[in-house]
Design a protein that fits this description.
One of its GO terms (molecular function) is heme binding. It contains two helices and no strands. The chain is mostly helical. The N and C termini lie far apart (about 40 Å). The model has no long low-confidence stretch (mean pLDDT about 90).
Length: about 55
């Protein structure tokens, strides 16, 4: 017997602007002792172009 699957987080791609996603990504990448570089809105736009039809 398997445990029930939890629902997946819905996509927010249609709702968040590139800069908003960049801000959240930069925060997460720089939190908890991490020292990752900032994510720009251009970085997000480039990934969206690759992933979204």
């Amino acid at each position: 017997m398997h445990a029930p699957t939890t629902p997946a987080m819905p996509s927010l791609a249609w709702r968040l602007k590139d800069q908003e996603i960049a801000d959240v990504s930069t925060y997460v990448r720089g939190s908890w002792g991490n020292n990752a570089p900032a994510v720009s809105s251009g970085d997000v736009a480039a990934v969206r172009k690759q992933l979204l039809p």
